[in-house]
Protein backbone atom coordinates (compact mmCIF):
# COMPACT_ATOMS: atom_id res chain seq x y z
CA UNK A 1 0.00 0.00 0.00
CA UNK A 2 1.12 3.58 -0.60
CA UNK A 3 0.37 5.80 2.35
CA UNK A 4 0.17 9.55 2.71
CA UNK A 5 -0.27 10.64 6.31
CA UNK A 6 -0.68 14.18 7.63
CA UNK A 7 0.96 15.72 4.57
CA UNK A 8 1.57 19.43 4.94
CA UNK A 9 3.20 21.38 2.14
CA UNK A 10 3.77 25.11 1.72
CA UNK A 11 5.48 27.23 -0.94
CA UNK A 12 6.84 30.07 1.20
CA UNK A 13 3.91 31.44 3.19
CA UNK A 14 1.37 29.78 0.88
CA UNK A 15 0.11 26.57 2.47
CA UNK A 16 -0.96 24.30 -0.38
CA UNK A 17 -1.67 21.02 1.44
CA UNK A 18 -3.09 20.93 4.96
CA UNK A 19 -2.77 17.66 6.83
CA UNK A 20 -3.76 15.45 3.88
CA UNK A 21 -4.05 11.69 4.42
CA UNK A 22 -4.96 9.05 1.87
CA UNK A 23 -3.99 5.53 0.94
CA UNK A 24 -3.53 3.73 -2.37
CA UNK A 25 -4.15 0.01 -2.02
CA UNK A 26 -2.96 -2.58 -4.54
CA UNK A 27 -5.69 -3.54 -6.98
CA UNK A 28 -7.60 -0.29 -6.64
CA UNK A 29 -8.04 2.85 -8.69
CA UNK A 30 -8.14 5.94 -6.50
CA UNK A 31 -9.33 9.16 -8.13
CA UNK A 32 -8.26 12.58 -6.91
CA UNK A 33 -10.56 15.43 -7.81
CA UNK A 34 -10.39 19.14 -7.06
CA UNK A 35 -10.56 22.56 -8.63
CA UNK A 36 -7.61 24.15 -10.43
CA UNK A 37 -5.05 24.99 -7.77
CA UNK A 38 -6.57 22.64 -5.16
CA UNK A 39 -3.19 20.95 -4.69
CA UNK A 40 -3.54 17.69 -6.66
CA UNK A 41 -0.27 17.93 -8.61
CA UNK A 42 1.60 19.07 -5.52
CA UNK A 43 0.27 16.05 -3.63
CA UNK A 44 1.41 13.69 -6.40
CA UNK A 45 4.84 15.35 -6.49
CA UNK A 46 5.25 14.98 -2.72
CA UNK A 47 4.18 11.33 -2.96
CA UNK A 48 6.68 10.59 -5.73
CA UNK A 49 9.49 12.57 -4.14
CA UNK A 50 9.67 15.39 -6.70
CA UNK A 51 8.94 17.71 -3.77
CA UNK A 52 10.87 16.91 -0.65
CA UNK A 53 10.34 19.96 1.53
CA UNK A 54 7.15 18.90 3.32
CA UNK A 55 6.06 17.44 6.63
CA UNK A 56 4.13 14.21 7.10
CA UNK A 57 4.67 10.67 5.93
CA UNK A 58 4.69 9.29 2.41
CA UNK A 59 5.77 5.69 2.03
CA UNK A 60 5.21 2.27 0.56
CA UNK A 61 4.14 0.11 3.47
CA UNK A 62 5.55 -3.08 1.88
CA UNK A 63 8.17 -4.02 -0.71
CA UNK A 64 10.92 -1.82 -2.10
CA UNK A 65 11.07 1.97 -1.75
CA UNK A 66 8.01 3.74 -3.13
CA UNK A 67 9.76 5.10 -6.21
CA UNK A 68 11.19 1.72 -7.18
CA UNK A 69 7.76 0.17 -7.53
CA UNK A 70 5.89 3.21 -8.81
CA UNK A 71 5.63 4.94 -12.17
CA UNK A 72 4.61 8.59 -12.55
CA UNK A 73 2.85 10.22 -15.48
CA UNK A 74 3.58 13.92 -14.90
CA UNK A 75 1.07 16.57 -15.92
CA UNK A 76 3.52 17.75 -18.57
CA UNK A 77 6.04 15.00 -19.33
CA UNK A 78 9.40 16.09 -20.72
CA UNK A 79 10.63 14.73 -24.04
CA UNK A 80 13.98 15.19 -25.69
CA UNK A 81 12.90 16.51 -29.09
CA UNK A 82 15.59 14.67 -31.06
CA UNK A 83 14.96 11.26 -29.55
CA UNK A 84 12.60 9.01 -31.45
CA UNK A 85 9.67 7.46 -29.64
CA UNK A 86 11.53 4.15 -29.47
CA UNK A 87 14.68 5.83 -28.12
CA UNK A 88 12.58 7.60 -25.49
CA UNK A 89 11.12 4.26 -24.34
CA UNK A 90 14.59 2.69 -24.27
CA UNK A 91 15.89 5.69 -22.32
CA UNK A 92 13.11 5.29 -19.74
CA UNK A 93 13.86 1.59 -19.29
CA UNK A 94 17.61 2.16 -19.05
CA UNK A 95 17.17 5.01 -16.56
CA UNK A 96 15.31 2.53 -14.35
CA UNK A 97 17.94 -0.19 -14.86
CA UNK A 98 15.37 -2.39 -16.59
CA UNK A 99 16.14 -4.71 -19.48
CA UNK A 100 15.24 -3.51 -22.95
CA UNK A 101 12.20 -5.19 -24.39
CA UNK A 102 10.04 -5.23 -27.47
CA UNK A 103 7.34 -2.54 -27.55
CA UNK A 104 5.35 -3.91 -30.46
CA UNK A 105 2.65 -5.57 -28.32
CA UNK A 106 1.61 -2.46 -26.43
CA UNK A 107 2.18 -0.30 -29.47
CA UNK A 108 -0.28 -2.33 -31.51
CA UNK A 109 -2.82 -0.74 -29.17
CA UNK A 110 -1.45 2.81 -29.13
CA UNK A 111 -0.22 2.87 -32.74
CA UNK A 112 2.60 5.37 -32.32
CA UNK A 113 5.18 6.01 -35.07
CA UNK A 114 8.03 4.93 -32.78
CA UNK A 115 10.74 5.75 -35.29
CA UNK A 116 9.76 9.42 -35.58
CA UNK A 117 11.26 12.16 -33.41
CA UNK A 118 9.27 13.27 -30.38
CA UNK A 119 9.09 16.82 -31.70
CA UNK A 120 7.15 15.46 -34.68
CA UNK A 121 4.48 14.02 -32.36
CA UNK A 122 1.17 15.76 -31.62
CA UNK A 123 0.30 16.56 -27.98
CA UNK A 124 -1.97 13.50 -27.79
CA UNK A 125 0.73 11.26 -29.28
CA UNK A 126 3.22 12.52 -26.68
CA UNK A 127 0.73 11.68 -23.93
CA UNK A 128 0.41 8.17 -25.38
CA UNK A 129 4.21 7.85 -25.54
CA UNK A 130 4.53 8.80 -21.86
CA UNK A 131 1.83 6.27 -20.98
CA UNK A 132 3.52 3.60 -23.09
CA UNK A 133 6.77 4.18 -21.19
CA UNK A 134 4.88 3.32 -17.98
CA UNK A 135 2.91 0.40 -19.38
CA UNK A 136 6.02 -1.46 -20.56
CA UNK A 137 7.54 -1.29 -17.07
CA UNK A 138 5.05 -3.37 -15.04
CA UNK A 139 4.94 -1.11 -11.99
CA UNK A 140 3.09 -2.14 -8.83
CA UNK A 141 1.70 1.39 -8.53
CA UNK A 142 0.95 4.13 -11.03
CA UNK A 143 0.51 7.81 -10.29
CA UNK A 144 -1.18 9.48 -13.24
CA UNK A 145 -1.68 13.25 -13.40
CA UNK A 146 -4.51 13.93 -15.88
CA UNK A 147 -3.94 10.80 -17.98
CA UNK A 148 -7.05 11.36 -20.12
CA UNK A 149 -6.21 14.95 -20.98
CA UNK A 150 -5.37 15.41 -24.66
CA UNK A 151 -6.21 11.84 -25.71
CA UNK A 152 -8.68 11.29 -28.53
CA UNK A 153 -11.96 9.51 -27.87
CA UNK A 154 -10.68 6.10 -28.88
CA UNK A 155 -7.54 6.40 -26.76
CA UNK A 156 -9.65 7.59 -23.80
CA UNK A 157 -11.83 4.48 -24.03
CA UNK A 158 -8.78 2.29 -24.44
CA UNK A 159 -7.00 3.85 -21.47
CA UNK A 160 -10.01 3.31 -19.23
CA UNK A 161 -10.02 -0.37 -20.18
CA UNK A 162 -6.25 -0.66 -19.69
CA UNK A 163 -6.50 0.88 -16.22
CA UNK A 164 -9.34 -1.44 -15.21
CA UNK A 165 -7.36 -4.48 -16.37
CA UNK A 166 -4.19 -3.35 -14.57
CA UNK A 167 -6.28 -2.81 -11.44
CA UNK A 168 -7.78 -6.28 -11.77
CA UNK A 169 -4.33 -7.84 -11.86
CA UNK A 170 -3.27 -5.97 -8.74
CA UNK A 171 -1.84 -2.59 -9.76
CA UNK A 172 -2.71 0.34 -7.50
CA UNK A 173 -3.49 3.46 -9.53
CA UNK A 174 -3.81 7.02 -8.22
CA UNK A 175 -5.07 9.42 -10.87
CA UNK A 176 -6.35 12.94 -11.21
CA UNK A 177 -8.92 14.06 -13.73
CA UNK A 178 -11.27 16.95 -14.32
CA UNK A 179 -13.53 14.57 -16.25
CA UNK A 180 -15.89 13.26 -13.60
CA UNK A 181 -17.18 10.45 -15.84
CA UNK A 182 -13.67 9.13 -16.42
CA UNK A 183 -13.21 8.91 -12.65
CA UNK A 184 -16.56 7.43 -11.72
CA UNK A 185 -16.34 4.87 -14.54
CA UNK A 186 -12.92 3.62 -13.46
CA UNK A 187 -12.24 4.48 -9.82
CA UNK A 188 -13.04 2.40 -6.77
CA UNK A 189 -12.77 5.42 -4.53
CA UNK A 190 -12.44 9.16 -4.96
CA UNK A 191 -10.90 11.81 -2.72
CA UNK A 192 -12.09 15.38 -3.09
CA UNK A 193 -9.48 18.05 -2.36
CA UNK A 194 -10.68 21.57 -1.66
CA UNK A 195 -8.10 24.27 -1.02
CA UNK A 196 -5.49 21.69 -0.05
CA UNK A 197 -7.80 19.94 2.42
CA UNK A 198 -9.43 16.55 2.00
CA UNK A 199 -13.09 17.45 1.89
CA UNK A 200 -14.24 13.84 1.76
CA UNK A 201 -13.33 10.33 0.61
CA UNK A 202 -16.04 8.61 -1.42
CA UNK A 203 -16.37 4.87 -1.92
CA UNK A 204 -17.82 3.58 -5.19
CA UNK A 205 -21.19 3.09 -3.48
CA UNK A 206 -21.23 6.82 -2.68
CA UNK A 207 -20.45 8.08 -6.20
CA UNK A 208 -24.12 8.99 -6.73
CA UNK A 209 -23.85 11.71 -4.11
CA UNK A 210 -20.35 12.75 -5.33
CA UNK A 211 -21.69 14.41 -8.45
CA UNK A 212 -24.50 16.10 -6.54
CA UNK A 213 -22.11 17.29 -3.78
CA UNK A 214 -19.71 18.77 -6.33
CA UNK A 215 -22.59 20.46 -8.12
CA UNK A 216 -23.97 21.82 -4.85
CA UNK A 217 -20.64 23.27 -3.75
CA UNK A 218 -20.05 24.71 -7.22
CA UNK A 219 -23.47 26.27 -7.29
CA UNK A 220 -23.15 27.62 -3.77
CA UNK A 221 -19.81 29.19 -4.62
CA UNK A 222 -20.96 30.64 -7.95
CA UNK A 223 -24.29 31.84 -6.61
CA UNK A 224 -22.52 33.52 -3.72
CA UNK A 225 -20.26 35.26 -6.23
CA UNK A 226 -23.23 36.27 -8.35
CA UNK A 227 -24.97 37.71 -5.27
CA UNK A 228 -21.96 39.94 -4.65
CA UNK A 229 -21.96 41.12 -8.28
CA UNK A 230 -25.62 41.76 -8.99
N1 LIG B 1 6.61 25.55 -7.47
C1 LIG B 1 5.64 26.29 -6.95
N2 LIG B 1 5.89 27.45 -6.34
C2 LIG B 1 4.91 28.19 -5.77
N3 LIG B 1 3.60 27.84 -5.78
C3 LIG B 1 3.29 26.68 -6.38
C4 LIG B 1 4.26 25.85 -7.00
N4 LIG B 1 3.64 24.77 -7.50
C5 LIG B 1 2.32 24.92 -7.23
N5 LIG B 1 2.11 26.07 -6.55
C6 LIG B 1 0.82 26.55 -6.06
O1 LIG B 1 0.23 25.49 -5.32
C7 LIG B 1 -1.18 25.51 -5.52
C8 LIG B 1 -1.61 24.12 -5.94
O2 LIG B 1 -1.09 23.86 -7.25
P1 LIG B 1 -1.27 22.43 -7.94
O3 LIG B 1 -0.56 22.50 -9.25
O4 LIG B 1 -0.89 21.39 -6.98
O5 LIG B 1 -2.86 22.41 -8.17
P2 LIG B 1 -3.75 21.38 -8.98
O6 LIG B 1 -4.86 20.97 -8.08
O7 LIG B 1 -2.91 20.32 -9.56
O8 LIG B 1 -4.34 22.33 -10.13
P3 LIG B 1 -4.76 22.05 -11.66
O9 LIG B 1 -6.09 21.35 -11.60
O10 LIG B 1 -4.87 23.43 -12.22
O11 LIG B 1 -3.67 21.23 -12.30
C9 LIG B 1 -1.49 26.60 -6.52
O12 LIG B 1 -1.91 27.76 -5.81
C10 LIG B 1 -0.15 26.85 -7.19
O13 LIG B 1 -0.04 28.19 -7.61
TrEMBL record:
Keyword list, A-Z: ATP-binding, Nucleotide-binding, Transport
InterPro entries (UniProt xref): AAA+_ATPase, ABC_transporter-like_ATP-bd, ABC_transporter-like_CS, ABC_Transporter_VariousFunc, P-loop_NTPase
GO molecular function annotations of the record: ATP binding
Domain called ABC transporter: residue spans: 2-220
Identification of the protein by name: ATP-binding cassette domain-containing protein
Organism: Hymenobacter jeongseonensis
Amino acid sequence: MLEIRNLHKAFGAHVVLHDVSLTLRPGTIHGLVGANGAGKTTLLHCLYGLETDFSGVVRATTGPALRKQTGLLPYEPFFYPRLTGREYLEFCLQARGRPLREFAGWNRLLELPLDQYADEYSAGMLKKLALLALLVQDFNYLILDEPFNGLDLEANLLLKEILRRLRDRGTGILLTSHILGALTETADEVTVLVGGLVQRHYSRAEFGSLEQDLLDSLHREKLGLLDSLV
